[in-house]
Amino acid sequence: MVTPAVADIHPATPTMTKGPYFPDHDQLDKDANLLQVNGRSGKAQGEVIFVSGTIRDIYGNPIGGAVIDMWQANKWGRYDHEDDPNPAPLDPNFQGWAKLMTASDGKYNIMTVKPGAYPQGSSWRAPHLHFRVRKRGYEEIGTQMFFKGEPLNDDDGLLLAVRPKYRRDLLVVDFGSGIGKFDLVLQPRRG
Predict the structure, then answer these.
(1) Which of 44, 70, 123, 148 would bridge 94 by S-S if both were Cys, CB 3.0 to 4.6 A apart?
(2) CATH label of the domain that carries residue 140
(3) Which among 72, 150, 86 is positioned nearest to 118, based on CA atoms?
(4) Mean of the pLDDT values across residues 53-61?
(5) Domain count, the chain
(6) Residue 125 catalytic?
(7) φ and ψ at 107, to 5 degrees?
(8) Is there a domain that residue 191 lies in?
(9) Are 170 and 14 in contact (CB under 8 A)?
């Protein structure tokens, strides 16, 4: 591992709440393609997006073998979770949760649909993806990825709770081509 000068240290990705809809039961199909559930012929409804990125440590070194859980609401803003009160429809062809491991160069790729916004109390949550990343020797993080330019970002209480200088790390810049890059930075575990 290369340990650069202090000026070259990158801040760890901001942590956010895991949220109330982390999958509470296992599923057979949890690969990185959320567009189709194994054993079903239908495809998930919604705008197809590709999310790729690299998991690195604060020194910029790629972290291979990191485990990523990614889960999200469907195109209508509904989670496939028994506690989700949203009356929006479920999509039986949408996987909703991926579990994968980064390659030796720290890279990952996920194919999914852009999630819909959903009501939370008297406001709305902006479209987002949930990430939990863990690797032995590093602090586990739970965070959320948002879409730059999404109007609801300006009113999303959880996003606004992140200090402005770190908030930009949670916004995916380019989805014009259907591909967005979301890099994450892990803090080495102390002790």
Answers:
(1) 44
(2) 2.60.130.10
(3) 86
(4) 97
(5) 1
(6) yes
(7) -85, 155
(8) no
(9) yes
